[in-house]
Design goal:
- With 41 residues, the protein is mostly helical.
- The chain has one domain.
- 66% of the residues lie in helices and 0% in strands.
- The protein contains three helices and no strands.
- The radius of gyration is 9 Å and the shape is globular.
Length: 41
């Protein structure tokens, strides 16, 4: 997912979009979390 890739590169706008998707319980959340999880602390 390009949005997550951009966010992980440190871009602010994609980060804010990802946050909004999670807050709004988008159907894309499971995919987003799957991509982010390996980099979570």
């Amino acid at each position: 997912m390009e949005l997550v890739e951009q966010m992980l590169k440190g871009e602010i706008v994609p980060l804010s979009r990802v946050i909004s998707l999670v807050e709004n319980e988008s159907k894309e959340v499971p995919e987003i979390m799957k991509l982010i999880a390996p980099r979570a602390g």
